[in-house]
Amino acid sequence: MSKAKIATVWLDGCSGCHMSLLDIDEGLLAVAAKADLVYGPLVDAQEFPPNVDVTLVEGAVSSQDDLKLINKVRRNTRVLVSLGDCAVTANVPSMRNGIPTNVLLASIYTKPPVDGVPALLKNALPVHEVVKVDLHVPGCPPKPEAILFVLGELLEGRRPELAGKVKFG
Ligand code: SF4
Fold it and tell me: Can you point out the beta strands (E) in 91-154?
């Protein structure tokens, strides 16, 4: 039987949710027995591949690059999971919402950012305001046990029952 395909995506987040994923420790071996990690900051893949079974998304949608990527991720993913408070509510990245982007950038850079810096959206957005999300897993970051539970259930074809297992913050 062929293995499932898992991806992870790092949008506007601090990488703490990915660190929590790595903190699954030996649980990663159980996941690896059932699925291949095909995209994300932990693997060397340049393009998001087609036919991904489960994608965990960390971070808010904050830039044009984020927007382009999350739309491609959605098209190519069966079960899309918002992982962590930044993906679920926009959390920390949304603290800049309400400040015009030109004012924000002028407060940070002495000169306008050079080519290659992705243009900011007016607001940092939770993922579900941009694309359909199949499962929300809050936490800042979500606990490793919760992430392992989510992956285990999804890989068995079940919808994870998260009551009592996750909380915001
Ligand atoms: S939810 Fe918390 S840990 Fe995850 S990316 Fe946002 S700030 Fe970092």
Answer: 120-125, 135-137
The pTM for the full model equals 0.96
Report residue 123 as tokens: 């607001």
| 60-75: pLDDT as tens digits | 999 999 999 999 999 9
- CATH superfamily ID and name for 4-95+123-155: NADH:ubiquinone oxidoreductase-like, 20kDa subunit (3.40.50.700)
Residue of the CA atom closest to atom 5 of ligand 1: 13
Dump pLDDT digits (tens) for 81-90: 999 999 999 9
- Confirm or reject: Cβ of 90 under 6 Å from ligand 1: no
What is the CA(140)–ligand 1 centre distance, in A?
5
Could you tell me the two tokens for 59? 């971070």
